[in-house]
Amino acid sequence: MTKRLVLLAIVAMAALAAIIVGLALGRAAYAATSARAATAVKINGTNGNDRLVGTKGNDVINGRGGNDSISGGPGNDTLNGGPGNDVVSGGAGADRITCGSGRDKVLAGPGDTVAADCENVSGLPKPAVSVSDAQVVEGNSGTATLPFVVTLHKASTKPVSVGYATADGTATAGSDYLAASGTVAFKPGEMSKTINVTVNGDTTIEPDETLTLSLSNPVNAKLATASATGTISTDDKSPHAGHYSGQTSQGHAISFDVSADSKGLSNLSFSVDLPCSDPSVLPLSLAGQMTIGDDRTLSGTFSGRSGSNIWAGSIKGSFDPATGAGSGTLSVFDAVNTSSGAVICASGTLTWTAA
C-alpha cells in the first residue's frame, strides 16, 4: 500500500513537471513569434495561389507563381507579385511594389512606389503636372522652335494626359509664331514631354516678344504650374542705339545719334564742299529726328538758312543687320544770292558710311 502511494506521488510529480516545462516552452515559442513579428522577414510564396502576410517590420515578400494575395502590413516593405493575377496591398509605410506578368490589382498608400507593370492601381495620389518657361532666338529667316517642357513630379502607373493651348502676349500668332493646341500624353513611367511651338524669323527691328502656353483638363493628374511664358528673343539689334561717326566721299566727317529703340536718327552733322558757295565748305548741323524704318532704311530731307544762303538736301541709307554699320547717299544744294541773282550750287550725290 505504501509503495503504491509512493508510485502515485512520483507519477503526479512527473506530470506536474511536464506541465511546467510545456508552459515554459509555450511562452518561449510565443516570445519568439512576437520577436519575429517586430523584425523584417523575407517571405517566399509557392507556385500556388498563396496568401502572404508580412510583419510589422520592413519585409520582403515574393509571390512567385499563382494568383497570390499579398499584404505587406506596417513597415517599409518590398512586395513582388510575380507571375499570375495578384492582389497586392502595401499597408502603412513607404512600400515598393512590383507586380510582374499577369493582370494585377494594387491597393497602394500615399508613400508607396508602384512599378509600371501594375495594371490596376488605386490609393496613390495623382501626380502633379507642370510646364516650364521657354526661350528661343527668332533668327532672321526661316523658323525656330520654342520648346515648352511639361513634366510630372513623379512617374505614374496610369496613362496621363493634359491639354494645352497658346495665347498671344506681345507676340502675335500668325506673324511671330504659329498658334498651337492639342493634348500631350504620358505613358506609364514617363515623366517629361516637350511641346514645340514654331517661331517665324524676321529682320524687323523690335523688342523681345512673349506668348503664353496654358495647360488644362488633366487626366489621371492634377495641375501644378498650369501656364508658362515663351520669350522670342530678337537678334535684330541693328542699328545699335547710341552715337555713330564716319566719313563722306568728300572726306568730311559725318555723325548722328540713334535712339534707344533703334527707330529714330537725330543730331545729324556733316560738311559738304560747294565750290561756288561762300564759304566753299558748308557745315550743316540738323535739328529734329528722322525715322528709321523696320527694314533698317533711312530716307529724309532737310533745309535751312545760313546768312544769305538757303540750302536744302536729302539723305538716304540703310544699316547692316549683322554689324549695325550704316551707309548711304546724300546731296545738298545751296541757293547763293549774288549781284547777278541767285546761283544754285549742288554737291551732286555723295556717299557716306558710319558706325
How would you explain this protein's 3D organization?
The protein has one helix and 28 strands. It has 355 residues and is mainly β. The strands form five sheets. Strands 20, 21, 22, 23, 24, 25, 26, 27 and 28 form a nine-stranded antiparallel sheet that branches. Strands 1-3-5-7-9 form a five-stranded parallel sheet, with no helix packed on it. It is rod-shaped.
Features:
1 helix, rod-shaped, 355 residues, five-stranded parallel β-sheet, nine-stranded antiparallel β-sheet, mainly beta
List the helices and strands and how they pair.
Elements: H1 2-37, E1 42-44, E2 51-53, E3 60-62, E4 69-71, E5 78-80, E6 87-89, E7 96-98, E8 105-107, E9 113-114, E10 120-122, E11 128-131, E12 134-137, E13 143-152, E14 160-168, E15 181-186, E16 192-200, E17 209-219, E18 222-223, E19 227-233, E20 242-248, E21 253-258, E22 264-273, E23 281-291, E24 297-306, E25 309-319, E26 326-338, E27 341-346, E28 350-354
Parallel strand pairs: 1-3, 2-4, 3-5, 4-6, 5-7, 6-8, 7-9, 8-10, 11-18, 12-19
Antiparallel strand pairs: 11-13, 13-16, 14-15, 14-17, 17-19, 20-21, 20-28, 21-22, 22-23, 24-25, 25-26, 26-27, 26-28
Helices and strands, in order, run as HEEEEEEEEEEEEEEEEEEEEEEEEEEEE
β-strand number: 28
Major β-sheet annotation: 9 strands, antiparallel
The gross shape turns out to be rod-shaped
Distance between the termini: 138 Å
> How much strand?
over 45%
Structural class by sheet pairing and helices: mainly beta
Helical fraction: 10-25%
Radius of gyration: 44 Å
Q: On the 0-100 scale, what is the average pLDDT? A: 86
Assembly context of the chains: single chain
Low-confidence stretches: 1-38
Count of alpha and pi helical runs: 1
